Amino acid sequence: MDETTVSLKFRLNGRECRAEVAASELLIDFLRDRMNLTGTKRSCDMEICGACTVLLDGKAVSSCSLFAFELDGKEVLTIEGLAGPNGLHPLQRAFIECGGFQCGFCTPGMILLAKSLLDEKPDPTVDEIRDYMDANLCRCTGYQMIIESIQRAAELAREAKP
Amino acid sequence: MTIAVGQSIPRIDGQEKVTGRALYASDLKLPNMAHGKILRSPHAHAKIVRIDARRAEAMSGVVAVLTRENLTANAPYFGTYIKDQPIVALEKVRYVGDIVAAVAATDEKIAEKALGEIEVEYEELPALFDVDAALAENAPAIHDENPARKDPKYGYGASLLRHDDTNIFYHFHYERGDVERALKESERVFTETYYLSGAQHYPMESHVCVADDRGEEITVWSATQTPFPLRQEIARMFGLPLSRVRVIVPYVGGGYGAKSGVKNEALAVALSRLAKRPVRIYLSADETFKTLSDPGAKVTITTGVKNDGTFVARRCEIYFDGGAYANSGPTVTERAGYRAHGPYRIPNVKTDAYCVYTNKVPGGAFRGFGGPQVSFAYESQADTIARQLNIDAVELRLKNLLGKGESYTAGNIVIDCDLKNELKTIAEAIGWKEKPEPSKTPGVRRGKGIACAVKDGGGVNKEANAMVQILIDGSALLFLGSVEIGQGVRTALMQVVAEELSLPPGKIQVAPLDSAFTPFDRGTHASSAITVMGQAVQAAARDAREKLLALAAEVFEAPASEIALEDGQLLFGGKKAAVSEVMRRHFGDLEGEITGRGRFKVERREDAPLGYPATFWENGLAAAEVEVDEKTGEIRLLNYVSLTDAGTMINPLHCRGQEEGSVLFGIGHALYEELVYRDSQLANPNLMDYRLPRFRDLPRKFHSIIVEEGGGTGPFGAKGIGEGGTLAAAAAICNAVYDATGVRLYKVPLTGQRVWTALAEKPGAKRGE
């Protein structure tokens, strides 16, 4: 199938990247199949569940509903790029500590959405967490323990800053 | 002080899952792997007159097209209990979405495109979209011949009634006492009918598998809850010995019953056989909706009582809308029938539970397994009875609830927890004696409701095997067939091994699940892993420990019985040696290992109605305070408390996660989730139109209480957990709505429209008697 291709320059998990993508290629397929970043999960495929959430220039987006070419000139963060050289991100530690996941399939998207929340509001109230996180679905936890995980992550982040 | 049991140690899959490194079946890529896509029926019931796949086969990139014309299986039908579902349609299709053909191609887009090139000519047949139509006298048969089946042998009071040549594919009957006479002699008799909509499990990861048929052996990677039954079905269907079928289970993105039994694995094998390469099938969300559902149900319940509220007799009639194929419908029906009379002391009981074929998505296992359907009915009716008799709803239940140690039926284990005390605890937690504070908004009414339910836990006729190896460096490996579907079972059972071997949890690794080296297990369902597999794992750890002590006896030249194992050290008198040291002294420099084996099997009891006792009683209590907006019919949960007994918590954090997750399933069923059919079509097979519970649906005030009464048959007194929360939710919420409005809701979910209509039709009406 001949198709227009697009040349892209972007940053992926902190590294400069270049790629040729088909015009119709979806971001989720580009990440999972071309970049082998399978931490980004496919579920509802219609921007409802948030399992495929990645951060594009710091904002949470559904990679199932964006074209890969929309990466051009932007910075994308997937779950694989979240942990720093000194270990897990406070959200990752908090999700383990507070039982913020079970099957783990929604977790990469959930953690990235929570990162975008904490970047905007480092100390969110429960209501703010509920409203913001309402964009993503989890079928296992019942949500309460995710809320607690995010509160705990905010606390860990505060402790890390002198 | 324990080493591991009772501690919320971090889950062993935690790091991988929060970093995106966890490998799920849907992430798997094999060299030369083709992608399978499925052609599904547009008709609910039709004969296939002709299929022509030549144009699809000729397409570049297509490596196989599977239709009935080229299917080569020894046995083309599968099914957990009734072998009624073909790999691809043979004579006819039976629901919209039924599998007609499949294509494997080098990429998904080509496979998808090739589906459009398969010509199928159908001859439509009259279709049946509900149970009443399927039971009508001249209803067409959805299955023309009676499919092969293996029926269970029931014990005291239970029987299976066959209705061959009708659309009823399962009829479970249970009876004790003389119900008709007792109802006649009852001072009051209540009859009501309750309805539950069909629902979708929606595991976040769709059904997915990769199959590699290499002629003389088959390997299947699948997101399955039942790897060994799957192996057995694949071996039978494709005519291979069990030893040549290998099932590997990577991480599974949610199960909830959906992933029990064969899904698309046999189809992937058949495609792989044609394509001579591995084939992956990953269903879209839409296809997941069209693969399996929680069957909708109608439950008619009649209870005879004395004026003082004592239950005397109960008659239940349950109809499940089983869809086009039996799947686990027979056992869901059996279990609903067995559970229908509830945790009450009722001398006279008669239950008939039916599962009926219709031309809809097949019904099957769903978290709670028939329990939520019947508990909605009996716990709603308990409320009706209490109000009609002017008895407090808690008092009425306390009067009739089975006490700890009392029998539910003959042949089963006795009730293993104090339901009465639990009910008092949850009533206290919701402030049962205080009236809700009235809303300041006009037309908004508040009320409280309560419910208490049980299910026999751990499945029927279960068997599990496990293996524990102690390696020469003092670390250990645990092999078990329980699938990690999120519940944390592999962490919890590792904790059991740590406790038995006195090893720190970090020294024990849990081996991946691969039927080539994992011992046999019947499946991860019915909250069974802790009690059933737990006993096998504990036995395996103890066997390994005994063998280790025998080695230490040689080393210390002392009787094994006098050697202690503590904290990774073997102790005798004043002498002390690390496990690794004892191992090295026995095996020498060359490596060696100790292998401990454990098996647990539930023994048959002829007097048990289902043939086998349960391994524990799973309980679910709920108390809800709701707000009903009379203008819109909207219901808001102001406060929700759930309670369950875990026996002993192996890992408290994960127990809480299981309980709260199952509560949200129950709330989803009660308020939002409903499969909507427009004639033949499932109208909402996607998350835009099918409403799952979201963050904002979590009740403002919400907490779970997990009690530890220590009465479980699992290791250290543990009981299973994870389904209890689904049992009481719908009734507790509907009872609260009644308290708020005086209107009884007979059908869930309580959509705004349904509630508004009920309020408009019968304001303050008192139905039910």
What does this structure look like?
The complex is a heterodimer of chains A (162) and B (769). By secondary structure, chain A is an alpha+beta fold. Helix content of chain A is 34%, strand content 17%. Chain A has helices at residues 27-34, 90-97, 107-120, 126-133, 144-160; strands at residues 5-12, 15-22, 53-56, 59-62, 75-77. The mean pLDDT of chain A is 96. Chain B has an eight-stranded mixed beta sheet with strand order 3-8-1-17-14-15-16-25, sandwiched between helices. In chain B, helix 13 runs parallel beside helix 14 (529-556) and helix 14 packs across helix 15 (579-587). Chain B is α+β, with helices and mostly antiparallel strands and 769 residues long. Chain B is 27% helix and 27% strand. Chain B has three domains: 25-125 and 202-289, Aldehyde Oxidoreductase, domain 3; 297-459 and 608-761, Aldehyde oxidase/xanthine dehydrogenase, molybdopterin binding domain (Aldehyde Oxidoreductase, domain 4, 2-Layer Sandwich), CATH 3.30.365.10; 462-601, Aldehyde oxidase/xanthine dehydrogenase, molybdopterin binding domain (Aldehyde Oxidoreductase, domain 4, 2-Layer Sandwich), CATH 3.30.365.10. At the A-B interface, helix 2, helix 3, helix 4 and helix 5 of A face helix 1 and helix 16 of B.
